[in-house]
Write a structure and sequence with these properties.
Blueprint: H1 6-28, E1 34-36, E2 40-43, E3 54-56, H2 63-77, E4 82-86, E5 99-109, E6 124-128, H3 132-145, E7 171-178, E8 181-191, E9 194-202, H4 211-222, E10 228-230, H5 237-241, E11 246-256
Parallel strand pairs: 3-4, 9-10
Antiparallel strand pairs: 1-2, 2-3, 4-11, 5-10, 5-11, 6-7, 7-8, 8-9
Length: 258
């Protein structure tokens, strides 16, 4: 197990807890029960499969203690597939039947003024989602942006992003609108010491026009007092580094099941 100390560990823990809080809010509004120990956040099956099953929230737990917590997860999920993030990439879970899918960097932006060399793309507006109609538009644009196949849409409207999440003060949905159409969107979740970016996407025919960058800047502006974390796809890293994000650590994704 790696040795993590000081500010680096504190920021990674804040990121891990932010991911857990975002998913907790999302799935609880879908009727899914969630749990948390000092070492692990996890949930019972149900709701949308886009959400992780469990998240390690402590890099310094003894292996046997963490594995004891994981047994509760395995019992609850039975034969269903389990998805887990270790936000430090510190643990080896192969001995208990997990397979590591990938290990990729996560990025952090410390509170600081945004670069000024940016102009909002012509005709684009950024809106905060405050009602069910906008949330439905966000969800549809997200499906298109992630090129979700029809079979994955069987969860139905608000089956991934429940209306109840609009009542969570920490949850922020942002949409980019062009000529009346929502063409991109993202989620930001605020905890006491971190703002996390999740689910940013742009409809394919509207990519490479600066819309995602506009959304990232809007997220950063939501809470200028907080550091901002993100776990981007490799092809989108430039969007974040151009906005002041730096590589902060590594996340390992683990999977167990079929």
């Amino acid at each position: 197990m790696a040795d993590f100390r000081g500010a680096e560990n504190s920021l990674t823990r804040a990121m891990a807890l932010n991911v857990a809080a975002w998913i907790d809010s999302s799935v609880a509004c879908l009727g899914v029960q969630t749990f948390r120990t000092e070492r692990l956040w996890w949930r019972k099956p149900g709701g949308s499969p886009i959400y992780l099953s469990a998240i390690v929230t402590d890099a310094e737990a003894a292996d046997d203690v963490l594995l004891a917590d994981l047994r509760f997860v395995e019992t609850a999920w039975g034969t269903e597939e389990i998805s887990l993030w270790d936000c430090w990439a510190a643990y080896d879970l192969t001995e208990v039947g997990f397979k590591r899918q990938w290990a990729e960097p996560w990025y952090l932006r410390h509170p600081s003024p945004l670069p000024r060399n940016f102009t909002l793309p012509p005709g684009l507006s950024i809106e905060a989602v405050t009602n069910a109609k906008q949330l439905a538009e966000f969800e549809e644009a997200s499906w298109e942006g992630f090129e979700t196949i029809e079979a994955d849409r069987t969860v139905g409207r608000f089956g991934q992003h429940a209306e109840g999440t609009l009542d969570d003060a920490g949850m922020h949905y942002l949409i980019a609108r062009l000529d009346g159409r929502v063409v991109a969107g993202t989620i930001a979740y605020a905890t006491a010491d971190m703002l996390g970016i999740y689910g940013i996407s742009t409809i394919p025919e509207f990519r490479r026009r600066g819309y995602a960058t506009a959304l990232v800047r809007a997220v950063v502006s939501l809470r200028s007092d907080l550091p901002v974390s993100v776990q981007p796809d490799p092809e989108s890293v430039r969007i974040y580094t151009d906005t002041g994000f730096v590589r902060a650590g590594q996340v390992a994704a683990w999977h167990k099941g079929n």
